[in-house]
Each structure stands twice: as C-alpha cells, then as structure tokens.
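Q: For a teaching session next week I want to show students how multiple molecules come together into a single three-dimensional assembly. I've collected the sequence lines for a complex. Could you give me the predicted structure tokens for the whole thing so I can convert them for display?
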Amino acid sequence: DAKTTQPPSMDCAEGRAANLPCNHSTISGNEYVYWYRQIHSQGPQYIIHGLKNNETNEMASLIITEDRKSSTLILPHATLRDTAVYYCIVRAISSGSARQLTFGSGTQLTVLP
Amino acid sequence: GAVVSQHPSWVICKSGTSVKIECRSLDFQATTMFWYRQFPKQSLMLMATSNEGSKATYEQGVEKDKFLINHASLTLSTLTVTSAHPEDSSFYICSARAPPGLAGGEQYFGPGTRLTVT
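A: Of course. Below is the structure for the complete assembly, covering every listed component.
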C-alpha cells in the first residue's frame, strides 16, 4: 500500500472548516484513500473514502486532486468533539479476503473554542 | 451501522497471569477480524489477522504463543495475553470488516481494551 504524509498537528477554530491535507504521491490506480479518526482512548472511527471523485457524507467531504497524489479531508463546521487524531490511509480494494489497514502517525486536530 | 464491541474495556492484572479480551461484531458476521496494539502517543500497530475457523496470521515480531487468538465464530474473536508482563501494558483494539453491501464493507473498530500489568 502507498505511503502517506500528513502534518503532525493542526488547530482549527470552533465553527470554522477544518481542512486536513494528505500526500500520497505513490498511489496506484487501484488504491483508495481512506480517512479514519481516533478520539483519545477510543477505537478509530471510519469517516470517508474515495477513489478519484470527490466524496461527501454526513461527516465530511473528501477532495482528491486530479492526479490523485494528494487529498484533503474537510470538516465543514468543526466542533470541540472533532478534536482527534485523523489518519489518511491508502489501500487497494481486493475482492475476497479483507486486508488490514496500515496506520501512519496521523494529524492531531485540535478544535479551539 | 456496523457495531463492534470489546470486553472488558479495561483490565488490571498481575505479572505472570493471563488475560482474555473479547471482540464481537454485534450486527454483522465477520470472517476476518484484526487485532491492533497501541502504546501511548503512538499509532496503531497491527498484531495479527484473525480468520474464522482457521489459525491467525501474526505480524513479524509478534509472539504467537504469547498472544493467543481464537476466532471460533463469525461474530467473536478472542485475544489472550499469556503470562503478561508490564511491557504488555497497552491499548488493544480489534476491528472487523463488514461484508460488502452492509455499511459499505468498511472496517469497523471496537472501543479498545486498556490493559495494565502490575
């Protein structure tokens, strides 16, 4: 699976949009971009994933550049509860057996009041 | 949505004893579950892949005789830390992949189990 690079930490004001970048310059054509987050002392939570088109769900939006070498996770109106470590993971989807997720160091997002 | 539970949520045990941690998929069947370990201020590290009805696959450096994994049913995997020592103190997290068509077929994580060995 391709390696990802994320900034170690970011701050965001409550109510503002949080934009979390991720570089994955070695991504392959069959690899998806996944985002998970981990609130302190809890298990990771799935947020969103995409292949090449931008995606949006009730939690966030995922913007993937046209060359797919980077992406941005957007939390449109950050709240204090969004303070967490956000992980960007690139993984190929293979039909059949499940494949594990490989976690990097992630970005610690702190939402400030 | 898909829910994964773990029990216990935290446990304290004495050095040399064994501890069993349960991971359950509550509303779906999971042929494959994963066990991760997370030390303070570090990321999650995969320990092993648990396959229902067969032996677990361990990552390099993880002792299979120390971390016993049993996946006896499609909704339950257990991790037993045998002869625990203080260096085994960590946050243990399991995950299960929901089948395609259910919750997007993504991996869902349990809440974690905090193990402290004294």
